[in-house]
Design brief:
Immunoglobulin-like; alpha+beta; 9 helices
Length: 480
């Protein structure tokens, strides 16, 4: 459906009324409006201080924050304008939206159900390939026949089907020129479906090195504690936007503290910067101390990632009770399950907090080193990955099943017990849809090397002879 949101946007023109072209306007994620504007005039268009309001009948919703990138659009240049509403936007009904600049008024509509959107985009320079994960937000299956990034064609091997409410991978050679000015450029991805008009959506173009798995992650351009350290939410939004503008061109990070994570800060601010950092063990300490900690960590990362996309999320992991760091360390099985839960939820790597407890025998240090050593080979796969729900059968009782499609290299399959220390032993047949290319006939556990068989049941589906144990397991099913 098309949702028309009444919006007044006041811009500053360098000379005379500007000529503004609206190329795309949609709502994604919830309460976030993205508008692709082209400066059709002969003078620069000043987008540094837009004022936006949404009108629905007699109600008025003001923007919590607004941001344009770039915030000065040269003649002929496009800019993505992002606006976060302070409260829920209407889900249906006709309302009007106007863009006002000087004495110019440009009416346009915002798609409440945008159809196709990009959740993650990464360029692998050594391969010359672009990897685009597209979500079909509509209610009917869609086939994408062509894609391009900033006008550069992505050489799809074949049309890609995206089931309703699901994601699929689009990848291929692409000669897009990203330059070196911006660490994570904001780009325009145009997707052409087999039926209907092409859509233009916003994406951030990441690089493989933005996926990290090590003891500490450097985040020099970071703002944190937005829910309590910067005044009201509106003041916090202004400060975060100002910081994002000052750091433009760099990899910028919002660090959501425990108060932020437990509250609504991620939903309100995650779109301002490219990367978000969360600490769910601090935010949900009681839940993480229980036997069902995997659910808490998994859902926390999934929720933050959904608010962040097309940006990325990564997680900080504590090796012991987060509110008593001198307490004994978790065992290696629990630490591994925590890391797997974060990665399965879509975290682009993780940061291990330095231990505060005594470790005279070096037991924890050795276990930590071993874990990092075992997972390090997965970093290139994780860099090309995004969570894609491939499971088409019920989850085995007592387990979470999550799948990451790792570009055209294969899939990572996470088998996570819902409750810690509950005995499980056996096997179960699970059914998945293929990622768009052929998979190997064997799946390998990444730490033990144990394997199980993968059988192609038809041209699009596979049967997995899935082992179930009391320990969290991570399997790689390579591309054939």
């Amino acid at each position: 459906m098309t949702l028309l949101i009444a919006c007044s946007l006041f811009l500053h023109a360098a000379a005379g009324p500007p000529s503004i072209e609206i190329l795309s306007a949609y709502q994604f994620p919830q309460n976030v409006c993205k508008v692709l504007i082209r400066n059709g005039g002969e003078e620069p268009l000043d987008l540094r201080a837009p004022e936006i309001r949404f009108e629905a009948g007699d109600s008025l919703v003001t923007a919590l924050w607004t941001m344009a990138e770039p915030d000065m659009a040269a003649p002929g240049q496009t800019s993505w304008l992002t606006a976060e509403s302070a409260s829920n936007l209407p889900a249906q009904g006709e309302i009007s939206m106007r863009l006002n600049a000087a004495d110019t008024e440009t009416p346009f509509s915002v798609q409440a159900d945008p159809g196709l959107v990009v959740t993650y985009c990464v360029m692998a320079p050594e391969e010359g390939k672009a990897y685009i994960f597209a979500l079909n937000a509509g209610g009917a299956n869609c086939i994408v026949t062509a894609a391009d990034i900033n006008g550069a064609s992505v050489a799809l091997a074949q049309p890609v089907e995206i089931p309703a409410r699901k994601k699929s991978l689009l990848c291929g050679k692409c000669a897009v020129g990203l330059g070196t000015e911006f660490e994570v450029p904001q780009v325009v991805v145009r997707l052409t479906p087999s039926e209907g008009a092409p859509v233009q959506v916003c994406a951030r173009m990441f690089k493989p090195e933005h996926t990290v798995m090590r003891g500490a992650v450097e985040t020099p351009d970071t703002i944190e504690c937005l829910s309590h350290a910067h005044g009201s939410y509106r003041d916090a939004g202004k400060k975060a936007v100002a910081a994002a503008s000052a750091w433009r061109g760099k990899l910028r990070t919002i660090k959501f503290c425990n108060v932020d994570t437990a509250g609504n800060a991620a939903a309100q601010f995650a779109q301002i910067m490219e990367r978000n950092h969360i600490e769910p063990q601090l935010a949900y300490s009681a839940e993480c101390a229980s036997a069902e900690y995997v659910r808490t960590l998994l859902e926390s990362v999934e929720n933050t990632r959904c608010a962040t996309q097309p940006g990325i999320t990564y997680a900080w992991i504590f090796p012991s009770n987060a509110h008593d760091l001198s307490s004994p360390p978790y065992g290696i099985a629990r630490l591994r399950a925590m890391v797997y839960a974060m990665l399965a939820g879509g975290s682009k790597g993780f940061e291990l907090s330095p231990p505060k407890f005594e470790d005279p025998s070096g037991t924890y240090a050795l276990a930590n080193s071993k874990l990092l050593e075992q997972l390090a080979p997965l970093r290139p796969l994780l860099a090309l990955s995004d969570p894609v729900d491939l499971l088409e059968s019920d989850e085995p009782a007592g387990f979470f099943i999550r799948t990451l499609v790792c570009g055209d290299k294969g899939i990572l399959l996470f088998v996570l017990p819902r409750i810690d220390n509950v005995a499980h032993e056996g096997r179960e047949t699970s059914r998945i849809r293929g990622p768009g290319y052929l998979l190997s006939e064997d799946a390998y556990e990444v730490t033990s090397g144990d394997s199980f068989s993968v059988t192609q049941s038809d041209s699009r589906h596979y049967e997995l002879d899935l082992p179930l144990t009391s320990q969290a397991r991570l399997y790689l099913i390579p591309a054939r």
